[in-house]
Amino acid sequence: MIHCFNIKSRNLVLDVESGALHQVDDATLDVLKAMQNACEDDITSSQAFLHALPGIQKEIRTLMDTGKLFSAPRHTNLHEHMKNRNPVIKALCLHMAHECNLRCVYCFAGEGNYSPGTTHGREVPIHGSNQQCDNGQQDRGLMPLEVGKKALDFLVAQSGERRNLEVDFFGGEPMLNFDTVKELVAYGRAIEAKAGKRFRFTLTTNGAFLTDENMQYINQHMDNVVVSLDGRQHVNDRMRKCRDGSGSYAQIYPKIKKLADSRGHKNYYVRGTFTRHNTEFAADVFHLADSGFENISVEPVVAPPDVEYSLREEDLPTLFTEYEKLADSLLTREAEGRGVLFFHFEMNLDGGPCIAKRVTGCGAGSEYLAVTPSGRLYPCHQFVGDESFQIGDLDTGIKHNAATVDFAVCHVYAKPECAECWARYHCSGGCMATAYYANDNILKPDKISCDLMRKRIECALYIFAERLKTKIKER
Description:
The chain has a domain at 2-74. The two termini are 33 Å apart. Strand 6 and strand 7 form a beta hairpin. The chain is built from 17 helices and 18 strands. The longest helix is centred in the C-terminal third of the chain and has 28 residues, at 447-474. The strands form four sheets. It has an eleven-stranded mixed β-sheet, with helices on one face. It has a three-stranded antiparallel β-sheet with strand order 1-2-3, sandwiched between helices. It is of the alpha/beta class. It has helices at 26-35, 47-50, 54-65, 78-83, 145-158, 178-195, 212-221, 233-239, 249-262, 282-290, 316-335, 355-360, 402-408, 416-419, 424-427, 432-439, 447-474, and strands spanning 2-7, 10-15, 21-23, 91-95, 97-98, 118-119, 122-123, 141-142, 164-170, 198-205, 224-228, 268-274, 295-300, 341-342, 368-371, 376-378, 392-393, 397-398.
């Protein structure tokens, strides 16, 4: 399988199985576009190939012979392997606080309230209390230290032979429980050598409680930090509100900027969300870049299709244009010595994840779990609060029920829409939560999200090709 596309004046062709990327002229692109849907045993006998100029035919044959064009599937036994895989847990998202100082409109936790019966703005069964998890009560409050320790012990026990383990201190707002965060970091460091493990700690915070003192601690002990800001002030303040309804930008911005500066602009991301209220989101990326942030991720909202801020089919042309504009402008900034890393455009075609990772993605529900303050286990933070997705707890372990089976077999070969998609090795089947909130099925990807992902990948490939050309010129 190949994928032909054009961005600006560049004609690019991706060979899906080998990962080879080619830049071609207009005539060759036209031939390959006509050939890209040909059967594997009919490629060079197709009418498009037979009517091509001899030089184009020769080039195509050479690339095919070297396995860089129309290459055969390299992983023919992978699907069977995935059916029987027994993944180990390698990452936990610890919900240190089911409380928050903000009331973000698109929050997965009902605007930070963790209010009974809603998540992502939709009705779900009510979950348990902070202590006994009795029906009708809420899993709210702060995670006790003993629950956090139990979670780290659980991760060690469930990680098999894997050495490097990931722990994200999450919320709500985890800095509402920051003393416990620090105690858990100390506990993790105390047990990792004996266990033969290495914890990598991440803090995800809205930044409101950052001080000089805790910034110093964060810089010494957190391997990575994710701070939240949506971009321009009016965009941020429309969705990311304080409890009194005022915007959070003025309070948050100077603190997270100081943190980014104090980390030497390494090992952090400022993460934003765009909705249909700011489909011109490239301006928000540029705002963050012009503000001095060098590691940026601005992502489409995860939301049910019926909420007013969710993205619509009619928004796609604008969003595609924004991604191309963003790619071109980021290359210009790079050439001017003002480059920034935009998370979704960073792609490594020379190495990158192994094939198992490429087809399973984040591993939610099988390799990655979220832990609530009471110790309940969910596939990821996006599913917390929906009892149909509770897959166990720290005391009794993982329940092998329908939910865990679905997540264990959730990979591109189990999704008909993914198995034939050219982007499958780069998107890994997309976000399971996005699929669920769009289609009530984690195995049925959301079409809008897929279209956006494919455009992001095209832009990332374009940037990769342009950077490679620059390197070649500089030699």
